[in-house]
Amino acid sequence: GRNYFERASAPDVENMEEAKERAKILAEAAALKQLASDYMHPEVGVKTTDPTLFGRNYFNRYSAPETEEDEFADERAEILAEAAAFKKSAVAYLHPEVGVCLEDANLFGRNYFERASAPDAENMEEAKERAKILAEAAALKQLASDYMHPEV
Predict the structure, then answer these.
(1) How far apart are CA 94 and CA 112, in angstroms?
(2) HEC states along 117-144?
(3) What is the pTM (predicted TM-score) of this model?
(4) Which site among 31, 38, 102, 114 is 20 to 30 Å from 20 CA-CA?
(5) What's the pLDDT tens digit per position in 95-127?
């Protein structure tokens, strides 16, 4: 067969560097052509399909409320919390007929271990002594039962 790439009448083949340079030059030329067309025909307008270009910036618009620094915001929050606490205290002081309303469920629980009628908890030494006394009492009971009923 014939070799179409190395024959004398075949067009010259450019290497990779030349191909990249040619693509770069063509891209720059297309961009310049687009800029010239935009400059010469402003009535055409800008056409885009990128959805991020249609979003609004709610923070930097002229009608946006002024923002404050974090330190001022924290201080403002503390002041408002203190004012709310003072108002609550004033209302509680001036209107005792309202009473106290408890909303925390933990306030209604009972502590079975530290109530007044709870038995005292004993430590390890007391528990061992109690077990020793009960063992001696059981032995004495058995001895008394054996003494009173020798037939058994």
Answers:
(1) 37
(2) CCCCCCCHHHHHHHHHHHHHHHHHHHHH
(3) 0.29
(4) 38
(5) 888 887 777 777 777 777 777 777 778 889 999
